[in-house]
Amino acid sequence: MTFQPDPHALRWRVHLISPPGQVHAVLMTDLGRAHFWAESAREEDGLITWVFPGGQTWRGEVLENVPPRRFAVRYVGGSVASFDLADDGSGGTDLTLTDADVPTEHRAEVAAGWVSVLLGLKAAVDFGVDLRNHDPARTWDQGYVDT
Predict the structure, then answer these.
(1) CATH number at residue 54
(2) Model-level pTM greater than 0.90?
């Protein structure tokens, strides 16, 4: 298997023990996103204002919100990040993240960043734990993965 073989999209999967409705609720709410993804991610009129550690901000629109199956946003740099949620047959969720149209020069960093986000989601949803350090002096730009 070639690592991330699709030149137009990054794809990652993660299995969660929580049901799709619970996972979707975390993705689609301000409080949910702030619990694992960004310092804040407030939605107003279909636009999410993201504030990341270190002060980086992004404003992107919610493109799809189909509870409890799909949530998609215009993400940093203009890519489209889609979360597809499927019932695993045992009460949990198989989540597939697709980030389409990531600029070639950013693919490696973005691919790694999504691993961090998805594992943060798993910790938050399945175990109620926030893995991030919340220290503006210890961010991704300084080589910290727990931001």
Answers:
(1) 3.30.530.20
(2) yes
